[in-house]
Structure formats: C-alpha cells, structure tokens
Automatic annotation (TrEMBL):
InterPro entries: RT_dom, Thioredoxin-like_sf, Thioredoxin_domain
Organism: Paramuricea clavata
Any Pfam family the entry gives: RVT_1
Taxon lineage: Eukaryota, Metazoa, Cnidaria, Anthozoa, Octocorallia
Keyword field contains Transferase: yes
Cited SUPFAM superfamilies: Thioredoxin-like (SSF52833)
Example of a GO MF term: RNA-directed DNA polymerase activity
Alphabetically ordered keywords of this record: Nucleotidyltransferase, RNA-directed DNA polymerase, Transferase
Name of the protein in its database record: RNA-directed DNA polymerase from transposon X-element
Amino acid sequence: MNNQKVTLLVLLDLSSAFDTVDHQVLLRRLQVTFGITGNALEWFRSYLSGRSQRVVINGSHSREFPLMYGVPQGSCLGPLLFIVYSSKLFEVIKNHLPDAHAYADDTQLYISFKPDSTASELEAVTSLQNCIADIKTWMTVDKLKLNDDKTEFIIIGTHAQLNKIKITELRIGQNSNPVVEIYDRTFDRLVSQEPVFINFYVPWSKESKAIHETWKNLGKLCQKEGLTTIAQIDCSRFSEVCKKYEV
C-alpha cells in the first residue's frame, strides 16, 4: 500500500491435505527430486509402511484397512513430508507469479499492481486465475484437491486505491463460489456496475441458514446461464452498510 499498489491475495485451502498424500508418489519424489536413496529412503519407506485403520461404532469393530495414503498428523515429520510432497507447487507458481508463501498445506498467492491502469489490473487477475487453474491440474495428478468453498480471495489497499479498481471477486473456474461475498468497501462499487441480487444475512440467524442453500443454488443457476450476479453481505461484520439500507 505504501507503494500506491493494490494487492490481490488468495488463501488456498486443500481438502484433507495430509490424508491424501500418496506414499508411492512421496517416496519417488524423495528419491528423484531430493536425491534421497539407500538406507535413508528405506527409513522413510519403513516409517510409512505397516499402518492401518479401522472404524469402531458402538463397540463394533470393522476389519483393518491398510493405509496407502496420508502422513501422520501431529508428528514432527508430517508437515515436512507434506512440504516434500507438494514441492512441485512452487514450480507451477513461478510460471505465473513473482512470489508466494507456503507452510505445509497453507499457501498464499499474491500479486500487486498499480490501480491507475486497467491493463495492469487485468494482467494481475489473469495471472492469478491461470496460476490457480494450473495448480488445480497439478493437484489432480498428485491426488490433492483444492477446496473452492474455503479458498479465500482478499483485496488489499487503501480506500482511495480500492475505489479505482473494478474487480470485486475472483472466479476460480466453474467451481468458483457462485455467491459473491461483499464487503463494506466493495459494496457501492459492485451495485453501481451491474444489476445484483443481495442477501443481507447474519450467520447465526435461522432465517439466514434456511435460505443459504436456495441462495447458493440460485447463484449456480445465474452463473451457469450468465445472468445477474448473486451476492451476500454479512451484517454482523458490516452493520453500517446494512443499516444504511434499513436491514
């Protein structure tokens, strides 16, 4: 912000990241990418082998299932092995973005641009979208899955900078959230650009919970047919906006 730039930040959320690590892919990556061979590689193989699980319901036990996927959570090696497993992530990112931050299964993608230039804004948005698309392709190959519903998109900038840009959301392919989440600083800009249906809600309200799935399905329909934008704003966080419209 001190450089008069707006930053687009994406917080990636992986579904059951530690549980989906393929042991054979991990061992191959340790050997090929990191050069671990011989006894050291066998130590890792031994660490991952011989693990099983079973289900217990009301005192009844299922048969044991061998674990071919996953690294132990809560262990010292768990996060380290996941970092090794997902090491190709930065190879994908560097093709699109100047930098990113990650630890274990938490990854932050970001890119900054001058808000005075529409071309710079479009280039930044396109770079992020292409990067996420390639990340999802890589994840499919390595048996990981991006949780679209929990992946967050945040626009960072001063009030004056944010008023100069057009973007209010980042669509992540066809699986993007069909309901646009509006914030206090993006509300006026969104409603002034195009027709939009807005749900003013509070998370704890029975009425809000009752309409949640219907509103999401309406968003999916409008997204698929290219119709009007379906949006929502959390009145427990942005009460001043909601009061302005007597909600």
